[in-house]
Amino acid sequence: MDLEALSELLDGHSNSFVTAIRWQAEHDRVLDIEYEDPKLLNVRHRCEITCTWVKECDVSVGFFDSLQYLSEHPLLLPHFGPQGSLFFSSSPSSPESVIVRAQAAIHSASDGWLDPRSILNGPIGRLLVHLHHGSGLLARGPVPVLDAIASAVGPELPCTVTHGVTFETPLRVLLLNDRSIICRSAVLSQKC
Prior knowledge:
Layout: H1 3-10, E1 16-24, E2 28-36, E3 44-52, E4 56-57, E5 62-64, E6 67-70, E7 81-88, H2 95-109, H3 124-133, E8 136-142, H4 143-153, E9 159-167, E10 172-176, E11 179-183, E12 185-190
Antiparallel strand pairs: 1-2, 1-5, 2-3, 3-12, 4-11, 6-10, 7-8, 7-9, 10-11
Helix pairs in contact: 2-4
């Protein structure tokens, strides 16, 4: 069985658990999974998912009812493709509305998966000070998200997107409900 087959097997079945998460090697994590057989009542199976070269992990021990292993997802935007910075050089009449529109643009560009705090330049209070002063860094991250912010705030705050590094190592995301592991690869091994 592979991850796609496990995903199909677990789809809609509500009795799956991550029972442990442990390190293996320096950058790898292993998830111990236990799930109920959908065809044989009272039969439980165990497996391991080994994720190599983990970049981010917010999976925790507990229940899940959805498993996906994807090569394209908004969570991968900060890890693949062009990255950059978004600068501004004038003071907006309403800094608060600029922040609200920037947060909405991030939400829209990432289907709600990226936290605006990971893109915007610091806490809201500090960002408001920068906006009042009239120049500085508004955001840093994936260029498609920065373009969306620039478009959203553009009428009130002209911005410039500068391109930086382009990440080319393809990563994947393993989703368990709304929790994720971003890694180079994930491999399933059946235990029983």
